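Hi there, hope your week has been kind to you so far. Thanks so much in advance, here it is.
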Amino acid sequence: MGKLDGKVANVTGGHGGSGRRRHWRCRRGSRRRDQLLVLGGAAEAVVADLEAKGVRAAAFQADQADAAQAAGLIRRVAERFGKLDILVDNAAVGGGGLLGGEPADQATIDRRLAVNYTSVVAAVQAAVPLLPDGGRIVSISSGVATRAGFQGMAYYTGTKSALEGFSRGAARDLAHRGITVNVVQPGFVDTEGNPADGPAASVFLPTAAMGRYGRPEEIAAGVVFLASPQASYVTGAVLRIDGGYAA
């Protein structure tokens, strides 16, 4: 407890699913009622929940498929709270398309690339001059970046692999300032969009060594660690929280 006292964190895609639970876990990382946590996305309900628990929070609307808006969000957060300590790139667009099958819609491919990679790069570029020495950047990838596992994942896998490659390079570039850049690689997580008792469970469950879905708070715990002072010597790393999917 207290790992994130007084920190300002911008978490994109924070209004639903595991993003919402990650905010809950970030709140648990602080004891102080003046803790600042900034949310990206349409997150008014999350903000109200956090404020009821004594956390100062704000919601910002930005289309993460638009690199200019993604970068602008970073600047708006810093202007609102006077600083930025942590950037968590959580927004993502999933889905796939089978190569050799029905032609994939180009607009869908472009949007997936924009949200999962291009706008993350723009957000990081905007954050770097605002982050203090010792700042934190954590991006949420996917287990498919290491192991596709299924047909129809090529387009999505490509975006997440690009994100991980960018993060390794950024870790080198920013190490002299003590800014760490890391990736969390979740497996299948029980959320509204992919419930553990949903129709896909029979396909997904056999691929995880632990034989169950992850819980959002299990993913969030890894994010909090990488965002904390205790992770000051961890950079350029991929933290797999996947129940053994990539084992």
